[in-house]
Amino acid sequence: MNFTYYVEDGKNILDISGKGIVPAGKFANNKFIEELHISGDITFIGEDAFANCPNLKAVYLWTYVLHGIGRQAFANCPISELVINSHVPYMIHSRAFVGCALKELFLSGFTYRIGHSAFGFCKNLEVVRLRNGVNTISYGAFTNCYKLHTVELYDTIVTLKDDAFECCNIKTVHLLHDKDAPDYDTLFKGATIDNKEMPFV
Known about the structure:
By secondary structure, the chain is mostly beta strands. Helices cover 2% and strands 34% of the residues. The protein contains one helix and 17 strands. The relative contact order is 0.10.
């Protein structure tokens, strides 16, 4: 595994490539990293690997064999831009991105499970788009995202826990399929629920 620090366009960037696992706690509390690039054959990002990095604002995971993002891997980082591009099923473990600064979240492809409080307490999060491939949304996955008002769900979701969106302010739920979803009326009480065609994204 290779670790390279460099500065580009005034940003402090950490580039990780090669094979293996990013060790637990390896870069926690690192004040240098503003942008993170992970590529190659990195298969797992360990627990607390980048937790509490006070200046980490952008994360690009371009490793096609990523199997998981560990517990609290990016907890309490001010991440406002997140790109995940894996070609194998992967899991976002509990509290992996808790307290981040994302405004919009888009997940598709092979995200098969979003763990407990994985995106909890993301106080800037307004829109969540979960497309083809997302299978399970665990307890409290988006808990206390107070500004979250719009959710898009595709029909690959098998399990959606009752309090996955607890203490959010959801006004609109778009179901990207034609299936009836009677439980959604209870899970998203008070929200407008509609069906619309799957976009070509």
